[in-house]
């Protein structure tokens, strides 16, 4: 049985760990609430824009440079979105697993490359030697302006035929305990299915050219911003849950150690009493 000093040291260490995990849980809870409010307010607007893009894709036809260019994509870009920091459970590993699964299964034999957003995903995926761009510290100051620049780069690369398909892989926020790994096509724009599209003549206002140059790119940027906001909210939810579980586990371990400490202390006292009694009997004998 471990000596009392060693057990006391372990209990003190666990108490320090509990203070850290509890504080991190509180910080993540505050950040998560703010991020949840932001994505909850944005999702309906962004989802409606995505629907609008589908209708515009059908209506504009071949005039839209963001529509599918090839029947069978050969050059695939996967944008893997993770966090810059750890201590958030399986949040990052789930994205890495899905990204690698796409390479090995869905797009096996294709020319697949990665763009990574978030240090944790980049640290793993760069070992594949397929990472061609890493966006660092984006979540330190997540603004529409910064995200728009990245979205513009992706759109430009697609228009110039560098990629046939661009896929976003990220965690979508459901609640603080649940994050859903989503694989979403950013480009090309997915047109409405024939049965969904309404047979009608479209009147474009402003002009068709202005829609292509202004409205469609802005809608894509907002869609990309929504994805990053969604991932940001999911990250804090995952970290809050992970720190809550870590605090609970530390509490359980501390209680077990306290029980072990009390048993060891009682055993020590009992041994001392036995030694005293044994010595007294020896003297009397």
UniProtKB/TrEMBL annotation:
UniProt similarity note: Belongs to the ATPase gamma chain family.
Name of the protein in its database record: ATP synthase gamma chain
Keyword terms, alphabetized: ATP synthesis, Cell membrane, CF(1), Hydrogen ion transport, Ion transport, Membrane, Transport
Gene3D superfamilies in alphabetical order: 3.40.1380.10, ATP synthase, gamma subunit, helix hairpin domain (1.10.287.80)
Membrane protein topology class: Peripheral membrane protein
Segments forming a coiled coil: none
InterPro entries: ATP_synth_F1_ATPase_gsu, ATP_synth_F1_gsu, ATP_synth_F1_gsu_CS
Subunit text: F-type ATPases have 2 components, CF(1) - the catalytic core - and CF(0) - the membrane proton channel. CF(1) has five subunits: alpha(3), beta(3), gamma(1), delta(1), epsilon(1). CF(0) has three main subunits: a, b and c.
CDD domains, per the entry: F1-ATPase_gamma
Molecular function GO labels: ATP binding; proton-transporting ATP synthase activity, rotational mechanism
GO cellular component: plasma membrane; proton-transporting ATP synthase complex
Main subcellular location of this protein, as a coarse class: membrane
Keyword ATP-binding included in the entry's annotation: no
Species, as recorded: Capnocytophaga catalasegens
Organism lineage: Bacteria, Pseudomonadati, Bacteroidota, Flavobacteriia, Flavobacteriales
